[in-house]
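Running this now, will post back.
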Amino acid sequence: MNVLIIGNGGREHAIGWKIKKDNPDAKLYFSSGNGGTAKIGKNINFGTIEELADFSEKKQMDLTIVGSEALLVDGIVNVFQEKGLRILGPDKKSAQLEGSKEFAKKFMSKYGVKTAKYKTFNNYTDANNYAQNQKYPLVIKADGLAAGKGVFICKDEFEAEKALDEILNKQIFGSAGNHVVIEEYLVGFEASILSIFNGNEIIPFISAKDHKKIGNGELGLNTGGMGVVSPNPFFMDKHWEAFNKDILQPTLEGLKAENMNFSGIIFFGLMITQDGVYLLEYNMRMGDPETQAILPLLENNLLDIFNDAIDNKPIYLNWQNKHSVCVVLASGGYPLNYDSGFEINGLQKATCLYFIAGAFLNNNILYTSGGRVLNVVGIGNSLEEARKIAYQNIEKIHFDYNYYRTDIGEI
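Update: finished.
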């Protein structure tokens, strides 16, 4: 079994680890991978869709898994399928559910998916006039892909004016900011629900809770995620029922009505309020770092799940009755400026799972290369036990100027 995994973060390392664990004879290729994936497979450096498709044909890939939102939006699934190559993910049209916030909100509105009230604009004057008369806080989002940085939570009209100026006038996100979505601010707690879509039904994974802010207590700047717990201790049976009724089933109805008959991942970013469960966003690939916390709890063979989805077969998921806590070890200064190239020490002392996110391998030594460097994952019979294992192990690992939150999993 030859498998190509496209991406270079902790998510891709975790996917590769799970596949290799279940299928020891699988040959893994990563584009472009990192220092962790280099130890379980082969890193390649093809970047364009055409290069990746040619490589997959030449190597007779049995499956390709895509972690890049940009490649999905650019239609990598369409190109691979036209060449008869098996690939997991949404086609170009369906990928717009992640690639365009305006497209996604219109889809939600059309099919009755519960979401925050919103309006979209393509010019600064109209957008600012609308924003000046809204209740605050207010959420302003660049429409397109902005590397996770296109969302502004504005506490007053002055912050809204600045955000709109940067997005629409100064074009700090390029063409991703040609349109903006302005929506109401929801108060509650967030939950992440990954799922697999086989063209017929959406099968949800266990719940997770991400921690987005750089500082303890969810303070400071937004990041790509500083830690995850799974299952989410606040997401109860009543929330599952509301999610199924108000979000999952209307989404499924919409996918079928719009002929979005792909096979792949749907990530539901949720906000749970006093008024119910709301959908914040769709992502059309595995979450990061949610994947690193969730996959260690999955009992099924991951390759079987992916192949069954592509073949439109029924999927039944089984989970360990355990808890996981994933803590991100980051470079000091992240998510702003940070230095890299520091040797990572102490990994040999770790007695739990860890996944490499931003590090490269040189002479069998790992050096930092990114803001989020690695993920340490504790598994336990309780949330407290999993948390204890994760933090006991992260203290064994060191590189210059490292940083991590100390409150992941606290209740």
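The first strand starts at residue 2 and ends at 7. More later if anyone needs it.
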